[in-house]
Design goal:
By secondary structure, the chain is an alpha/beta fold. It has two domains: about 5-340, 3-Layer(aba) Sandwich (Isopropylmalate Dehydrogenase), CATH 3.40.718.10; about 370-475, Alpha-Beta Plaits, CATH 3.30.70.1570. It has 13 helices and 21 strands. The structure holds nicotinamide-adenine-dinucleotide (NAD).
Length: about 475
């Protein structure tokens, strides 16, 4: 078999130790890989590359299209953006797959029957990272949920369920509150779900769904969710199986894939031969399936299960009574190598014979443009006088075409007209100028409103046009409206 080129980064903290362990195991199992090592993370940040990666490292990724990455340390504050998020977004790794299952009775957990795969949208949501401070008192982060982004991740979840013989896909969203963004996610889940009659489908509001996941994880199978919920809940899910050190993840895009542990660089544990390499190893197992070396993946996974069954445990999962031997990273790796070719005796052995590499190719439907009509504008104002009625009375005079002031909100709550005196107001006001008939207005009316608001002496911090799409309103109402 010819060797598959892969890019490897040893990362920071415990990264180098767990990467050495992982590579030694998969190579002993017969992985046919040709490794190109790149440097990322702390040292690269320190050399002045604020992205944490040097330009030539992208060349390696472009060539191999497969990346096995150890965790890195993200400097806090300053102009540093997370390299993990950068890599995922720059090379379009839209799906993050995080399997979390219990290894009862060999690894202590309150949830012996848990076997959940979290499929996290990986590029959008609040991770668009578009943040602004707009007034002395108010900051903002834009939550972006797109149709193509949502369609890709939802289809991926259903295709994954089919390929891995899973029975149910659950969607988590918060569309009772975010009716447009999370509403789109839920709606597309319902629509696309009809194309998968063989798979059971359900939707949970994320808060109660998360509570149920923490309490009764055996009720779930595959769960698909927007980026932030998936980030948080996959750590929760991994932790309740026993340790965050146990979960691996695959980041999948159309042309690239990256495999890693879900945890970070755990600097306090670095350099002591302590860390559990299982998360990165299970990431590497997913990589082997992806590069069509499923047989090797299966051999490694089963030897790993057998090692845990034999009670050979790193410190994070070691428990008197259940465990037999507390070992370091290197000894744990050697114990797995010694068991290559063996199957677990109590735990279910994995079978990857039907998993045939990167077969999940998602085709999304082209967007059909709708009839989009401009019906108004939200003008956001910085004004430290906290009297909404005074602001309202000043803005009532402003009109253009059919657009006039219809409401003012503060942090989304309607405060004019007819606001409640009890509502706390900040210095950040959304002033809605709208054609109540919802018929089309002119762009020049928006410009005129903007100019009149400036002329009235107010400071505009941003505007947001109001549209209808095929007659459907494309903006949220004010709270209490
Ligand atoms: P962390 O996941 O690195 O560690 C938290 C704790 O979990 C550790 O102190 C340790 O007790 C335990 N732990 C984690 N992995 C373990 C393992 N393999 N074996 C045994 N115990 C393990 O989280 P943190 O301390 O919040 O973050 C440290 C750094 O990692 C930060 O700079 C953060 O930005 C970064 N980070 C990187 C990634 C990534 O590269 N994908 C992901 C998350 C965090």
């Amino acid at each position: 078999m010819s060797k598959t080129p892969i890019t490897v980064a040893y990362g920071d903290g415990i990264g180098p130790e767990i990467m050495e362990a992982t590579l030694s195991i998969i190579q002993a199992a017969g992985a046919q890989i040709d490794i190109d090592t790149i440097e990322i993370g702390e040292k690269v940040y320190e050399r002045g590359h604020s992205a944490g990666i040097e330009p030539h490292a992208w060349e390696s990724l472009r060539r191999t299209r497969v990346f096995l990455k150890a965790p890195i340390t993200t400097p806090q504050g300053g102009g540093f953006k997370s390299l993990n998020v950068t890599v995922r977004k720059v090379i379009g790794l839209y799906a993050n797959i995080r399997p979390c299952n219990s290894l009862h009775p060999f690894v202590q957990t309150k949830h012996p029957k848990m076997d959940v795969v979290i499929i996290r949208e990986n590029e959008e949501d609040l991770y668009a990272g578009i943040e602004h401070q707009q007034t002395d008192e108010v900051t903002q982060c834009l939550k972006l949920i797109s149709k193509p982004g949502t369609e890709k991740i939802i289809r991926y979840a259903f295709e994954y369920a089919r390929q891995y013989n899973r029975k149910k896909v659950t969607c988590f969203s918060k569309d009772n509150i975010m009716k447009i963004t999370d509403g789109l996610f839920h709606k597309m889940f319902d629509e696309i779900g009809t194309e998968y009659p063989d798979i059971e489908k359900e939707h949970w509001i994320v808060d109660i769904g998360a509570a149920k996941l923490a309490d009764t994880p055996e009720a779930f199978d595959v769960i698909v969710m927007p980026n932030l919920y998936g980030d948080i809940l996959s750590d929760v899910a991994a932790r309740i199986t026993g340790s965050v050190g146990l979960a691996g993840s695959a980041n999948i895009g159309d042309g690239f894939a990256m495999f890693e542990a879900i945890h970070g660089s755990a600097p306090r544990r670095a350099g002591q031969n302590l860390a559990n390499p299982s998360g990165l190893l299970l990431g590497a197992v997913q990589m082997l399936v992806h590069i069509n070396q499923a047989e090797v993946a299966q051999k490694v996974h089963n030897a790993w299960l057998r090692t845990l069954e034999d009670g050979i445990h790193t410190y994070d999962i070691y428990k008197e009574g259940t465990s037999k031997e507390k070992v370091g990273t290197r000894e744990f790796a050697q114990a797995i190598i010694d068991r290559l070719g063996q199957l677990p005796q109590t735990l279910k052995a994995v079978d990857y014979s039907k998993a045939v590499g990167k077969t999940i190719q998602i085709q999304i439907k082209p967007t059909v443009p709708s009839k989009k009509e401009l019906v108004g504008v939200d003008i956001f104002i910085h004004e430290s006088d906290r009297d909404p009625n005074k602001l309202g009375e000043a803005l009532e005079k402003i009109k253009a075409g059919d657009m006039r002031l219809t409401m003012i909100t503060n942090r989304g709550v309607k405060v004019y007209p007819g606001g409640m005196p009890e509502t706390f107001c900040t210095d950040h006001w959304r002033c809605r100028f709208k054609n109540e008939a919802l018929t089309s207005c002119k762009g020049s009316d928006v410009m005129s409103i903007y100019q009149q608001v400036l002329d009235a002496g107010f400071e505009i911090i941003k505007t947001e046009n109001l549209y209808t799409f095929d007659g459907n309103v494309g903006f949220s109402a004010g709270q209490g409206q």
